[in-house]
Specification:
Helix content: 25-40%
Largest sheet: 6 strands, antiparallel
Radius of gyration: 23 Å
Number of domains: 2
Strand order of the largest sheet: 1-13-10-7-8-14
CATH architecture of the largest domain: 4-Layer Sandwich
CATH class of the largest domain: Alpha Beta
CATH superfamily of the largest domain: PPM-type phosphatase domain
Mean pLDDT: 93
Order of helices and strands: EEHEHHEEEEEHEEHEEHHEHEHHH
Low-confidence stretches: none
Structural class: alpha+beta
Length: about 375
Amino acid sequence: MRPSENPWKNCLEYCAISEIGLRRSNNQDSHDEVPARNQKIWNMRGHVFCVADGMGAHAAGELASKLATDTIPMVYLKQTQLTPPEALTKAIQEANSKIHAKGNSDEELRGMGTTNDTLVILPEGVMIGHVGDSRVYRLRGNKWDQMTRDHSVVWDKEEAHEVIDDSVHKNVITRCLGVSPDVKPDIEGPWPIQVGDIYLLCSDGLCGQFEEDRETGYCEMGKILTVLPLQEATRALVDLANLRGGPDNITVVTVKYLGPQQAVPTTHDPKPVPMATETEMPHPEMPEWQWSMMKLLGKKPPKAFTQRTGRGPYRSYSAVCDSKFAVELRRIFTELRESAGTQAELNFKKVDQLAGAAAKALGAKNFKDATKYFAQAISEIWRQLAE
């Protein structure tokens, strides 16, 4: 889809970044963004966004995650006779089968697997398919919600109220695509969506580098999204994850709902189509005369959703900017600025202007602006150093 023909430019914004990090030799993450091509398709299947974090030796993890993000949107969009939850379940299970078969076909690929999060925006709201410990978050106002449950040993023990000590391997997941012939994905939603909502899908290479504290409700990630435009905020989150060590691949997809999904007709679809109030299901496969008789008898296509599934949100945090995070960003910036020194090839004018504005805001206890300007200054100098 050419940018000039984006039919959703007035009602949907999204951004995706995937980077190798600072300690890995290859990127085993994958992602895909599949906005509906037109209003008719959105009415039936919605927009689809995917993130996958692969695992396995050599190129196995990279292949596994790519198979997931290639297969899931394609299969989901084709299953128009199934309800969206059924279609998404089938798509994830088919991806699992493909990855499992590929892993068993080559000794070097054996045991390969991947996590997956798939977010679908539909007339009823947001639906998520989830396997593994990649995550989906939602920013609504100043509230930052984790919408998925980690399939991990740590989460299992926490829910069982068991002690988590040094013997617990905190990076061990209990469910993924590809390792077993069968998988049961979590299907969450649909949740009603509101104008201004931002959804973030990410691999643990991103969320693992930001502080979260369930006891106090403190979380850093959502604060960045409250103060910067979507593209800048996404970039700033990845930059900060790298600056905190970048120990893993980092992938993030952000999606902002700007308003009801009414497509602007493109040159390929010049005829306007009304926006559906609920997901449209096609009539059952049968001869047209039989369907005409069914309509006379008052029979209608099945409804897409009969009830909400899942238990999310699973954790909730405050996204209000505070002194703690602003001071932490100042520390990161100061260390980065000192390490850059006076390198002649770097342009420090904009960096120092942003830092000056941040320091002034911090002194005035305007933590929102301090967070904004320090984040921008960090990204500005890090981008120059990384080039």
